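Researcher: We're teaching a course module on how sequence relates to structure. For the next exercise, students receive a sequence and then see the predicted structure as tokens, so they can try to spot secondary structure elements on their own. Here is the exercise chain.
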Amino acid sequence: MNLRNSMGKGKKREESDVNIIPVMNIFLLLIPFLLLTAAFVQIAILDLSLPSLSKGGQQKQQDDQKQLTLVILAVKETGFQLKSPGFKFDPINKIENRFDFNTLATQLRDVKLKNETAEDIIVSPEENIKYDIIIKVMDQCRESGFPNVSLAG
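Model: And here is the predicted structure for the students to work with:
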């Protein structure tokens, strides 16, 4: 049997190629779009100043000149509680489910005015406090005149 005759007399068999140009065009546009909209990991660096261990007498002289003032700031689910010797602060409750940073700044400035040499503060957050709130509290402490911020957990 002759295959040429069975296909029909006037028809020629054409080979068809797959056209991949539209698919390539889609990838050409899609890949840069995905790369531009991707959220890459951003790492923030937090500058903490820790006390140095020096054996010289200069450190002891500086410690004698500075009166040690222990300032503790508790960050709770309900708000803030500031504790410092010589002060009696009421708890700073949340206002409309937001932390009241203005009242906190006022209380921190009061402590700083009474103890001008005080530079250290200990921030003690509860377990369920978000990291963003802790960073805002630390920034507020630095702005209020406490450059040495420590975290206690």
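Model: If you want an answer key for the exercise: The helical segments are 3-6, 21-37, 57-65, 101-114, 131-143. The chain has five helices and five strands.
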